[in-house]
């Protein structure tokens, strides 16, 4: 089954009805999708250096990505092979969950049959927002539900790790993994865009298609040095993204080296393995950087591994599975601040770190209204060092932790609509999860027997 | 799931905005000709384009995350730096850069002389100042973009043509070679061959001359370029974007 079937938008079928209808965008380019003629909108929705994404007249649910320069035969071959594959497709997804990949649904050709690009399902605003939209308060408040809090961020991180684990399990390498080409919806479900850059080996022909794209701020050092995209380079990007989610957008390779007059970028800090998360004090960090210890210990340990030894040693990086396990733990333990309901935080902290931060900086990460001004009475009564979360005595959830099962290969069966299930929906959700788990198991067993 | 919430008007103090995020910044300077030759439809087109571009900038989650905008105009009796919609008094210590999500387009009026040289000097200076400020604050930055737009020849304070701009060439050449910023120099309207030669000398990599006043496309090109900068794209990508921008306008001259 191809994604077109699922989304219910066979471009061709509907295009056939358009014969007698006036063309809505006469200035838009005409292209052929699976041989059917469609008209693109005159203005691209999004344009980058390599390609631009256009809406399709009368087909609101699909978009067409056209390469700026005639793509080579290799790219055409890649897209053709992609159309024969249905990655992550054999798995049922929960109700309301969008597909995890904006997989190509048809090749786009010109009137002479020349290859121009491809069609895919549209994942646009307001329903789907780039991950980077969660990294700034103004954007988060504008584009996401009001109750979006730190637990939601945990949930999105979990879904991201889950998607990565699934892709790796099926032999796909994301390659160009960044906060710009993952979108997230109001339930925290994530979808990877730009699938035409994914690295994969065709299971039928054994052809290898490498990933040729990267985004500097998420590229592991070996990729910055020109190396190929690997699972481990994905692990690096995943660690950065999860860290950003849990710290309201802070990049772990932010900050400027102390002894440097030269211009330093995130990319430079990655290349030089300079992260304040792994090595506090190695750079001057911007005012208002969230203290890394806001991460619960297990997650912080993973982050320190990824941004310390893991920078230069790809094998030392935590894998998606490791993140899943640690995030799973915290999602159940997270606490809600008694003073401000939109403040939630890890169970390792006794006082709300977001209240403390607001008291010191005047900036409330999760609320629009200035809730605490320096000098005024602070609801938490905190007077501790700026932005330093308070640590409680040794946690008592140790026993609880040990009882939990390790996450199965390749992870539980579905991304989770994070954190907001009403209590009555919980038994249903649990039931569904079990059902889906059984289904996956059956599929996996079948596959194993068949292969 | 969009909450229709207008961006809050710019507070008097920018303290809060500094905390909005710690993302690597991308300073962007629009250095705009507002001399008398721009009066009438051209300045109106420019104002309209600035307004719609501002809207697009607010809506673009990726750009508004790290771009910060400053406007420098040259017209009237001199040059002026704008902090969003507010003209700044000369010699003010305040930075004209505003985070993209809080940027409001100024409403520009056209009159007076074309102090292009002084405006470009101001643009280069505010970029350098902003870099030091960011660095001191522990904030990183991408390579800044300066976009110079003019429809005429540089003049002195009395409106006479001047060759004073030539004094900028060595510095601009060195700075661009040292990757201190990307300078785009764009001629619009009835700019002359001589005017085009000036732009070529100032910005050898990214200069262009176009008929009419397609400010909208121009600003969209600046956004595309900022986007490529965020990705960490190579020089060839910027050249491609710029070339694409040119070929989209059939009225371009070669």
CATH H-level superfamily of the largest domain in chain A: Transferase(Phosphotransferase) domain 1
Q: Please identify the structural class of chain B as seen in this structure.
A: alpha/beta
The CATH superfamily of chain B is identified as von Willebrand factor, type A domain
Largest sheet of chain B: 8 strands, mixed
CATH domain topology of the largest domain in chain A:
Transferase(Phosphotransferase), domain 1
Terminal-residue CA separation of chain A: 19 Å
Order of strands side by side in the largest beta sheet of chain A?
2-1-6-7-5-4-3
Gyration radius of chain A, in Å:
23 Å
Strand content of chain A: 5-15%
Q: Largest interface, with Cβ-Cβ < 8 Å?
A: A-B, 58 and 42 residues
Q: Average pLDDT of chain A, to the nearest integer?
A: 81
| CATH 2nd-level architecture of the largest domain in chain A | Orthogonal Bundle
Number of strands of chain A: 16
What is the class of chain B in the CATH system? Alpha Beta
Counting DSSP H or I runs of 4 or more residues, the number of helices of chain B is 8
The overall strand count of chain B is 8
Unreliable spans of chain B: 4-17, 248-254
The number of domains of chain A: 3
Relative helix content of chain A: 25-40%
Helices and strands of chain B, in order, run as HEHHEEEEHEHEHEHH
């Amino acid at each position: 089954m191809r994604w077109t079937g699922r989304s219910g938008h066979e471009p061709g079928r509907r295009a056939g009805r358009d014969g007698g209808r006036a063309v809505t965008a006469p200035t838009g380019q005409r292209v052929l999708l699976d041989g059917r003629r469609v008209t693109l909108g005159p203005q691209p929705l999004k344009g980058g250096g390599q390609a631009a994404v256009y809406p399709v007249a009368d087909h609101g649910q699909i978009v067409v990505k056209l390469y700026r320069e005639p793509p080579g035969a290799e790219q055409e071959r890649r897209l053709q092979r992609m159309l024969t594959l249905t990655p992550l497709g054999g798995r049922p997804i929960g109700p309301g969950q969008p597909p995890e990949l904006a997989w190509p649904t048809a090749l786009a050709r010109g009137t002479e049959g020349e290859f121009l690009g491809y069609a895919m399902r549209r994942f646009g605003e307001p329903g789907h927002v780039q991950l980077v939209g969660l990294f700034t308060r103004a954007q988060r408040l504008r584009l996401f539900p009001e109750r979006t809090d730190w637990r939601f961020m945990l949930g999105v991180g979990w879904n991201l790790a889950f998607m990565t684990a699934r892709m790796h399990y099926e032999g796909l390498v994301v390659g160009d993994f960044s906060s710009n080409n993952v979108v997230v919806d109001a339930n925290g479900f994530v979808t990877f865009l730009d699938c035409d850059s994914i690295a994969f080996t065709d299971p039928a022909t054994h052809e290898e298609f490498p990933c040729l794209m990267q985004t500097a701020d998420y590229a592991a050092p070996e990729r910055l040095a020109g190396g190929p995209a690997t699972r481990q380079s994905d692990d690096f990007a995943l660690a950065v993204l999860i860290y950003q989610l849990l710290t309201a957008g802070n990049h772990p390779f932010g900050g400027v080296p102390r002894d440097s007059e030269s211009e330093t970028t995130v990319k430079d800090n990655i290349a030089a393995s300079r992260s304040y998360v792994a090595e506090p004090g190695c750079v001057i960090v911007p005012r208002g950087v969230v203290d890394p210890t806001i991460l619960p210990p297990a997650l912080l340990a993973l982050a320190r591994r990824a941004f310390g030894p893991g920078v230069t040693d790809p094998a030392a990086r935590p894998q998606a599975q490791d993140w899943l396990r640690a995030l799973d733990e915290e999602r159940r333990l997270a606490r809600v601040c008694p003073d401000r309901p939109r403040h939630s935080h890890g169970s390792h902290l006794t006082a709300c770190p977001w209240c403390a931060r607001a008291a010191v900086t005047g900036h409330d990460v999760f609320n629009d209204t200035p809730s605490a001004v320096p000098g005024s009475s602070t609801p938490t009564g905190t007077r501790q060092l700026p932005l330093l979360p308070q640590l409680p005595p040794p946690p008592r959830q140790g026993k609880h932790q040990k009882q939990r099962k390790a996450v199965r290969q390749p992870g539980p069966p579905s991304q989770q609509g994070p954190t907001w299930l009403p209590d009555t929906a919980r038994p249903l959700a649990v039931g569904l999860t079990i059902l889906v788990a059984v289904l996956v198991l059956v599929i996996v067993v079948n596959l194993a027997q068949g292969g | 799931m969009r909450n229709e919430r207008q961006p809050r008007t710019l507070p008097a103090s920018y303290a809060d905005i500094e905390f909005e995020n710690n993302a690597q910044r991308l300073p962007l300077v629009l250095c705009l000709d507002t001399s008398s030759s721009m009066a009438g439809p051209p300045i109106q087109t420019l104002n309209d384009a600035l307004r719609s571009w501002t809207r697009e900038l607010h809506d673009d989650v990726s750009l508004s995350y790290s771009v910060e905008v400053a406007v420098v105009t040259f017209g009237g009796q001199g040059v002026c730096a704008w902090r969003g919609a507010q003209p700044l008094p000369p010699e003010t210590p305040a930075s004209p850069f505003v985070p993209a999500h809080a940027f409001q387009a100024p409403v520009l009026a056209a009159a007076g002389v074309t102090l292009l040289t002084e405006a470009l000097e101001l643009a280069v200076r505010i970029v350098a100042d902003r870099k030091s400020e960011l660095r001191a604050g522990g904030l990183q930055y991408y390579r800044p973009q300066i976009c110079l737009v003019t429809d005429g020849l540089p003049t002195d304070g009395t409106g006479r043509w001047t060759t004073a701009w030539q004094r900028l060439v060595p510095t601009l050449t060195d700075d661009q070679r040292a990757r201190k910023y990307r300078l785009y120099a764009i001629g619009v309207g009835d700019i002359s061959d001589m005017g085009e030669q000036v732009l070529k000398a100032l910005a050898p990599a990214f200069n262009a001359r176009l008929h009419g006043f397609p400010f909208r496309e121009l600003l969209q090109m600046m956004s595309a370029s900022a986007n490529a900068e965020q990705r960490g794209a190579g020089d060839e990508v910027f050249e491609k974007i710029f070339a694409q921008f040119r070929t989209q306008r059939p009225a371009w001259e070669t």
